Amino acid sequence: MTAMKEIWQYYWIRFTASAQQDSERGEVSATTVVMAAALIALAIAVGATITSRVTDKANSLDLG
Questions:
Q1: Per the domain annotation, does 64 fall within a domain?
Q2: Which of 29, 47, 60, 62 has the fewest CB atoms within 10 Å, i.e. the most exposed one?
Q3: Cα(12)–Cα(9) distance, rounded to whole angstroms?
Q4: How far apart are CA 40 and CA 57, in angstroms?
Q5: pLDDT on residue 27
Q6: Residue 43 is part of which domain span?
């Protein structure tokens, strides 16, 4: 788990450094695009998982 934490810390540092540079230059770097895509993919995966679990739970309820 510590390796994943270190990787995310590295990417977070790169993301914030990239954002600082972007604000100075006014352009979007590849790092910013990759991080945004990763966050969007994570949000979609979490949403799909939650939707699936809620649907399964709703289908398993005995209402009658």
A1: no
A2: 62
A3: 5
A4: 26
A5: 66
A6: 2-59
Total domains in the fold of the chain? 1
* Residue 31 and residue 14 in contact, taking contact as beta carbons nearer than 8 Å: yes
3-state secondary structure 4-38: HHHHHHHHHHHHHHHHHHHHHHCCCCHHHHHHHHH
pLDDT score for 23: 61
pLDDT of res. 40: 95
Beta carbons within 8 Å of 29's beta carbon, 6+ residues apart: 18, 21, 22
**Domain-embedded: residue 27:** yes
Q: What is the mean pLDDT of each run of 10 residues along the chain (64 residues)?
A: 80 82 66 89 95 95 85
- DSSP letter assigned to residue 41: H
- Which residue matches tokens 């699936």? 52
